[in-house]
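Technical annex B. To support the medicinal chemistry partners, we prepared a structural model of the target in complex with S-adenosylmethionine, based solely on the information shown next.
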Amino acid sequence: MEHEQAAEMSARVAGLFNRVADTYDAVGVPWFTPIAERLVAECSPRPGERALDLGTGRGAALWPLAAAVGPNGHVTALDLAEQMVAATRRDSTARGLGTVTFLVADASYPNLPPASYDLAVASLVLFFLPEPGAALRVWWDLLVPGGRLAVSTFGPRDPAWEDLDDVFTQYLPPQLLDARTSGIRGPFATDAGVEALFRIAGFDDIRTTSFDLPVHFNDVDHWYRWSMSHGQLSHWLAVPEPNRAEVLAQAAERLKAARDPRGGFTLEQQVRFTQGRRPLPG
Ligand SMILES: C[S@@+](CC[C@H](N)C(=O)[O-])C[C@H]1O[C@@H](n2cnc3c(N)ncnc32)[C@H](O)[C@@H]1O
């Protein structure tokens, strides 16, 4: 990707996440938190380790990571969106965490000392980066030999969810139809695709696990507020104002396919965890 194009993509992503910093993961839908908690558990952080949380957002991975490495460990949490960093720094102070350093930085070139981290995680971040493969190589370099990297990305979602999200498709500019985030094409479409990115970047001991996350919405408005509270806000903003009520009505209609007998709607998303290790010398 050209430098200018990459800079434009990063600026767009930072603007989007700055805008949702106050509502992100705060509308009563367990989504980022269960994904990140599982990601952290997958890579078994140990007390005293030095960890890196790339694209920390509102701290979904940071909190379990900081708890696991404990008072003798340390977490560096970085994000491109300064509002995200500011809000999460406040939360960290409120939690009394003294072992976290916050940085407003681009995860693609964070300017951190090489071979300094035992462990790095990036939950639902890699597909936002202009050059994911190049970023993985940079992260490889930040790890000590034997250090681990774990990332979460999306596998398939259930057909009802595909159909629901399709209400936006006709309005989306090409950059929002990007195959990397849709999980339909490109390296993020398959376990093997993400593993290949890891392999090319130099990781070994690469493995993938996944789980299906059921996501419950109490009613259409709950889904609407959730969809406005995170990256999907960009889809709503792509719909011209006069058309938004119609899009919401279509979404309400399509949500009926996901009606839960216990009330509300339940949709399912597969989440993928890919891990690798910077090889030990020799
Ligand atoms: C979907 S959110 C995930 C946040 C958090 N890891 C979680 O699991 O809730 C993606 C985050 O990545 C950040 N991000 C996107 N591109 C980035 C980049 N180039 N460098 C650093 N952070 C980035 C966004 O600002 C946002 O906070």
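Notes passed to the chemistry partners:
The domain at 3-158+183-216+270-277 is CATH 3.40.50.150 (Rossmann fold).
Residues 10, 13, 17, 25, 32, 36, 55-57, 60-61, 79-81, 84, 106-108, 123-125, 128-129, 231 surround S-adenosylmethionine (CB under 6 Å).
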